[in-house]
Structures are given as structure tokens and as C-alpha cells.
Design brief:
The strands form three sheets. This protein has a five-stranded mixed beta sheet with strand order 5-6-7-8-9. It is globular. The protein is built from four helices and nine strands, in the order ββββαββαβαββα. With 165 residues, the chain is α+β, with helices and mostly antiparallel strands.
Length: 165
């Protein structure tokens, strides 16, 4: 809003205008992220995956991937017992559309919350999918094969753009 009488509509999108006047999408503001041209609600991902077998808590968020537009989905899971990547992938495929399926899975011991009992995601987002920063097991979506452990070589291929998500 620049002058009296101007109006605006809050879309939740962060945009940028270049010197030629073109407007570009930068990011989503709030508890959503954009991936493959779609807006993904972290609350919906958390809700749909909370009942997966062996899962106690789900924290969903987006992480930047070099060379790719938007943010890839990632979930931090608190599990009850042993984690089955195969069973979890089957549940994800059944419950979520392809664009909302997490590309990365991280196992955590407990999910931190804020004073208002919302999940604290800042540190999780900062860690991204870097095995040097992530404590515990880290998985990547491998097409039809579900989730496999993320190796240093696989991460390097993703970061270099050799492997696209």
C-alpha cells in the first residue's frame, strides 16, 4: 500500500520485482512452503502422517535444495520402536499427493515445542539435509523404492544437481 486508497490482499506469498518490472515468487510466509509449483501445508502433512504405524510425532517443514525452485518437504519423526522406511513410504504414498510427499525424513528423539505448544522448526530447517548437522538417521526419497538412508555421495549428487528430487 503506497498511497491513501490503495488496497492489498495478503496471499502469504513473498514476491520480488526486478528492474524490468517482472515479479517473481520467492517463498511462502508461515507454515507452508512451495514445491513443484504447489503450496504445501505443513499442518496437513503433519496431520496425515501422524497416524502412520510406529510414528509418535511428526514435524513437517520445507528445506532449500541448491538448484531447485521452492523447498523440498522434510519431516522429523519421533518413532515408537523401530522405524520401517518401507512401511512409512507406503503410508506417505497413500495419504499425500505426490507434491506434498516429504523428500527427506529425519529421526529425532523428541520434538521441541514453543511456549504456545507449536513445533519449534527453526533449528530443523537450519540443519537441512546435511548429515554433518543432523543427529540420528536421515533418509531420502528414492522414487518408487521409498526411502533409503542418505549417504554423503547421495547428498553430494543432490547438491550438485546431478540427482534431482
Amino acid at each position: 500500500v503506497f498511497v491513501r486508497g490503495d488496497r492489498w490482499f495478503r496471499t502469504g506469498d513473498l514476491m520480488k520485482q526486478d528492474t524490468d518490472g517482472y515479479i517473481y515468487f520467492i517463498d511462502r510466509i508461515g507454515d507452508t512452503y512451495r514445491w513443484k509449483g504447489e503450496n504445501v501445508s505443513t499442518a496437513e502433512v503433519e496431520q496425515r502422517l501422524a497416524d502412520a504405524p510406529g510414528i509418535k510425532e511428526v514435524v513437517a517443514y520445507g528445506v532449500p535444495v541448491p538448484g531447485q525452485e521452492g523447498k523440498a518437504g522434510m519431516v522429523a519423526l519421533v518413532v515408537d520402536g523401530r522405524f520401517s522406511a518401507k512401511v512409512f513410504a507406503e503410508w506417505v504414498d497413500q495419504e499425500l499427493p505426490s507434491y506434498a510427499r516429504p523428500a527427506f525424513v529425519r529421526l529425532i528423539k523428541e520434538a521441541e515445542t514453543t511456549g504456545t505448544f507449536k513445533y519449534r522448526k527453526v533449528d530443523l530447517v537450519a540443519d537441512g539435509f546435511d548429515p554433518d548437522k543432523v543427529e540420528g538417521a536421515l533418509y531420502v526419497r528414492g522414487g518408487k523404492s521409498g526411502y533409503t538412508k542418505l549417504t554423503d555421495a547421495a547428498r553430494a549428487a543432490i547438491v550438485s544437481g546431478e540427482t534431482r528430487l
